[in-house]
Amino acid sequence: MPDYTLRIRRYSPENGDAAHWEDFQVDLDGSRSVLDGVLQAKDREDGSIGIRCSCRAGICGSCGVRINGKPNLACRTHLDEAHARAADGVIVVEPMGNMPVLKDLIVDMDAVHWKKIQRVTPWLLPDGPPPEREYVVPPDNMIDVTQTMACIQCGACVSDCLSMEVDPLFIGPAALAKAYRFVGDPRDGHQEQRVRDLAEDPHGLYDCTHCFNCIEACPKGVAPMSQIMRLRRIAGDDHHVEDRNNGHRHEMAFVKNIEKNGLLHEADLLPDSYGGKLHPRAVPELVSSLPIILRALQRGKVTPAGALLHKHKAPKDVKRIFRDIEGREERYELNLYVAGEEEDAS
Amino acid sequence: MKVAYWPGCVSRGFAPELHGSMARVAPLLDIELVELDRAACCGAGVIAEHNQELADTLNARTFALAQQEIAGGAELMMNICSTCQGAQSECQERLDGNTPYRDHVNATLAAEGLTYEKGITNKHFLWLLVEEIGLDEVRRRVKRPLTDLRVGPFYGCYIVRPSNRLGIDESHPRDTYLHQLIDALGGTVVDYAGQYKCCGFPIITMNKEASLKQAGRHVGDATDANADCLVTPCPLCHLNLDLQQPAAAAVVGRPLNMPVLHLPQLLGLALGLEPKELGMNKHVVKPSSVIDWTTSVVAAA
């Protein structure tokens, strides 16, 4: 049996010791999981190692940890794969991020993850009296929400959310993906209220910074960030929510900017994101940005003429593309998770 | 080699030194840049969040224009902006992954006589350096090794995630290319906590404090790791890390004075170009104020 070294981050609030690393040798086949490794160390060397686990088959979502710095399920990561990615041959196992550590590899999911899930009203709110028999949902609508239903609440995406790292109040990827699960369900009667609530929250829909960490982290292909973008389309385009966070205004300012100029004219984008150069919302922003604008001018990064005028204009075919597509009755969205990748004919 | 070159918007807008330094560096590596001057913005993820088909169609048009250049002798499409690379890769994944969808998008392009054929090769300059030119060749052309220069790589998001979409695997460890390049140029790689994190720029108009806190933390982490400067393949990251650095310093409550170089600028220095030729005088944080040119970069010439 090959030997693997697991370097486990230990922390116990009871003994008063600072968090520290401990190495454990495990002799298991490389196709066994990191969880099996941790459990062998617990069994043979130190029974006090704390880790949550249940199904050991990637279904229950209990054993989320960081392995070599990246969040994953311990039961779903083979020892040989983890070893191959380990910096110096030592497999590093530590608790997930963005959540307080209770003991060793166990984090407080209640304090962060579950609280955020509750924040999005994660149950169906049908409108009006129930039908005489069961609710009937067209298969296409159900398939549409299957991607978000695949979530096993492991917390891997929450662990590495970079917006949450600087804004702990951010609702976060798991809860927003859960929100789409109900917003996308035709039985739910509160689509507009749901997306309005999320868009208006200063730590909500528009607090996501597009870092893709949640897509990379998710062991189930839920792609939370893609669901956040779908929620934004529904909030802005279907329900015209003009949120207080400038989220929708920024999006529209960007789209109009490109439709007009073809290439982005940044000097217009900033004020337009706040409602336009003379809008009361924009004025304090421009004033507070003044030192930066002046420094950019002083360094020759931008010229006054370049800031005021944009010499590039969108070609007529670009304008036509905007007209054609924005004029469609329905948005055409392709979701490869649902459609599947084509097999290569070649 | 001839490439169909997409500079993007910001490199010709608020970060003109990026486009300028690329133009200076290209001939030193025998790269002929054929600029795609009729193409439009990639959407930076924002157009896609508004309307996916719109973003996919605009990028399919860019790809189709690049394919005309490729038919005329260019080897591939190249860009110099991570955000363009990431946004375009996302659109390409959908366009290449579904023939009826690609046909639908091409029907919109048909009025202009353009068609996107599945499978364009679109590489960021960083990938092209490692995979097409080769770091041994780059090493041979170094005139002024970056000896004693401690460089922190700042990858940002769009060029490293999601790894499967961006073609990162064992034979293409693209998430290590900045490290490899710094090393090839004779510099010292400085690892620090923020190298693969988000600069915060996409939410600067929505949550300025959270946005600048991200930039400030990463610059602070690099400072604590004793980096002389950062290098980034993304001009949008540059906006938050350099242009906004004084504001970010105020948000994180510590003084910051970290020069941030665009990828072609770092390369250009090692290839013998002068800081001013590379537009380094246009930065908000003056590189000369921190890097001692006389002892670190220039001395080994």
TrEMBL record, chain A:
It catalyses: a menaquinone + succinate = a menaquinol + fumarate. InterPro entries: 2Fe-2S_ferredoxin-like_sf, 2Fe-2S_ferredoxin-type, 2Fe2S_fd_BS, 4Fe4S_Fe-S-bd, 4Fe4S_Fe_S_CS, Beta-grasp_dom_sf, Helical_ferredxn, SDH/FRD_Iron-Sulfur. PROSITE patterns: 2FE2S_FER_1, 2FE2S_FER_2, 4FE4S_FER_1, 4FE4S_FER_2. Residues 200-228 form the 4Fe-4S ferredoxin-type domain. GO terms for biological process: respiratory electron transport chain; tricarboxylic acid cycle. Binds 1 [4Fe-4S] cluster. Binds 1 [2Fe-2S] cluster. It comes from the Bacteria. Its EC number is 1.3.5.1. Its cofactor is [4Fe-4S] cluster; [2Fe-2S] cluster; [3Fe-4S] cluster. Residues 4-97 form the 2Fe-2S ferredoxin-type domain. Pathway: Carbohydrate metabolism; tricarboxylic acid cycle. Keywords: 2Fe-2S, 3Fe-4S, 4Fe-4S, Iron, Iron-sulfur, Metal-binding, Oxidoreductase, Tricarboxylic acid cycle. GO terms for molecular function: 2 iron, 2 sulfur cluster binding; 3 iron, 4 sulfur cluster binding; 4 iron, 4 sulfur cluster binding; electron transfer activity; metal ion binding; succinate dehydrogenase (quinone) activity. Belongs to the succinate dehydrogenase/fumarate reductase iron-sulfur protein family. NCBIfam families: dhsB, PRK05950.1. This is Fumarate reductase iron-sulfur subunit. The lineage of its organism: Bacteria, Bacillati, Actinomycetota, Thermoleophilia, Solirubrobacterales.
From TrEMBL, chain B:
Residues 3-86, 154-242 form the Cysteine-rich domain. It comes from the Bacteria. The keyword Oxidoreductase applies. It holds the Pfam family CCG. Transmembrane segments: none annotated. Keywords: Oxidoreductase. One of its GO terms (molecular function) is oxidoreductase activity. The keyword Oxidoreductase applies. This is CoB--CoM heterodisulfide reductase iron-sulfur subunit B family protein.
